[in-house]
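Supplementary Methods. Inverse-folding protocol.

Structures were first reduced to a discrete structure-token string of length 342. This string, shown here, constituted the complete conditioning input.
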């Protein structure tokens, strides 16, 4: 074979290898944390509520530092330009100023899964609390249900959580929101776990209203992990073990929640794929014949039942929920939905 012929064959082989290589599926990589203000540039965020003063500067080592300052008459927030679904956020937090380095009588928080409400921000908040109460890392519902997961336990875990925050110093906050479950850690110490039916919303940094407040957030990094959504659930009512069943539904294996509006007194019951009872929670009728929202949410074998947003029970299950029922002699059910990943 001539040299020219041999060269042509080699070129053709290399070209075919290149084409085969280009047809290979892309390598799937795990999501990675990004600097928050690169993922969502600072100039796209907006101040909502009272006119707190925010600035973004370079700190030691080049880490970005967001500083919020008062005084302001009521709470002010720097809110993200878009809502977030599932994510992990890590950020260092320090509360205090040059003339009040320990942050006495100051307060702040990080809003998650929140929304603009009446010219301010409302929704879930991870607390920054240097008071003697020491509930930093607890979960509060701003302009809503108020305290949901305070650090008021008297066991060793509660004591460790309350001792985790260090006044006048940088404190590492880790916040994980995946589906219905929210977990918080402060300086590596587990603080709060809460299950909720709100699965998306704004992220925001709070400057608390009052005569003096200064809070800094350093090196904020976020890892976005997809999202969950509520969907209409086809269902039907029927008899169950001699009890009147106002509503029932079979649940898909990928379900991570179910909710329904109920008028009247009754019970919400979940049954596992192996037929075992998971949870059975009673509720009373609302005043004036109003509907109550009954929600059950879960992930990784654990979850909670909420009645009008208040936790009525926690549960753990070795098998997935397979059926949900609302039982009651005189109750009626409407607007059923189920929760799954988008």
């Amino acid at each position: 074979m001539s040299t020219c012929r041999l060269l042509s064959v080699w070129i053709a082989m290399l070209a075919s290898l290149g084409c085969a290589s280009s047809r290979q599926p892309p390598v799937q990589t795990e999501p990675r944390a990004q600097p928050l203000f690169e993922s969502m540039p600072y100039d796209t965020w907006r101040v909502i509520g009272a006119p707190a003063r925010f600035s973004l500067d370079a700190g030691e080592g080049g880490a970005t530092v967001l500083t919020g300052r008062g005084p302001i008459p009521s709470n002010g927030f720097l809110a993200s330009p878009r809502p977030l679904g599932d994510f992990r956020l890590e950020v260092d937090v320090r509360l205090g100023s040059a003339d009040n380095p320990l942050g006495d009588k100051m307060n702040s928080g990080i809003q998650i899964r929140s929304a603009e409400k009446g010219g301010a921000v409302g929704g879930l908040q991870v607390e920054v609390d240097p008071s003697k109460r020491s509930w930093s890392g607890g979960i509060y519902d701003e302009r809503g249900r108020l305290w949901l997961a305070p650090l008021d336990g008297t066991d060793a875990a509660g004591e460790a959580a309350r001792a985790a925050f260090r006044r006048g110093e940088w404190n590492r906050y880790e916040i994980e929101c995946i589906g219905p479950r929210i977990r918080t850690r402060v300086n590596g110490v587990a603080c709060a776990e809460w299950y909720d039916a709100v699965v998306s919303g704004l992220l925001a940094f709070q400057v608390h209203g009052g005569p003096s407040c200064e809070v800094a957030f350093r090196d904020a990094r976020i890892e976005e992990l997809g999202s969950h959504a509520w969907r209409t659930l086809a269902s039907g009512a029927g008899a169950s073990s001699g009890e009147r069943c106002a509503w029932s539904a079979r649940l898909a294996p990928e379900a991570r929640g179910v909710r329904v509006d109920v008028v009247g007194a009754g019970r919400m019951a979940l049954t596992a794929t192996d037929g075992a009872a998971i949870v059975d929670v009673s509720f009373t009728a609302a005043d004036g014949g109003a509907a109550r929202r009954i929600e059950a949410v879960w992930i990784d074998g654990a979850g909670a039942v909420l009645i009008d947003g208040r936790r009525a029970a926690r549960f753990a299950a070795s098998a997935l929920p397979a059926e949900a029922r609302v039982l009651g002699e005189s109750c009626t059910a409407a607007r059923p939905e189920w929760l799954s990943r988008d």
